[in-house]
Write a structure and sequence with these properties.
3-stranded antiparallel β-sheet, Galactose-bd-like_sf, NPCBM/NEW2 domain-containing protein, Glyco_hyd_98_carb-bd, NPCBM_sf
Length: 74
């Protein structure tokens, strides 16, 4: 996110073949890392979408979100 320890939140959605597999909501800048595990068995198309709860009411104008240390295991 743009600002560490921000009050702004985002939701990470993990989408497989147009179906939501997992959503991690209310993630804020400065939060501790949140480990996630998503079963991708049989999934052909995988996306990670970051959504703002209210894009019209952003305190800082923009938000940034990042994922770190992503791994795919077979």
């Amino acid at each position: 996110m743009k600002q560490k320890n921000s009050n702004e939140t985002v939701t990470f959605k993990f989408i497989g073949d147009d179906n939501e597999l997992l959503a991690v909501a209310d993630v804020k800048g400065g939060n501790n890392p949140i480990p996630v595990s998503v079963d991708l068995t049989g999934v052909l198309k995988f996306r990670i979408v970051v959504e703002k709860p209210d894009p019209e009411n952003i305190i800082y104008g923009e938000l940034y979100a990042s994922l770190a240390d992503g791994k795919l295991f077979q």
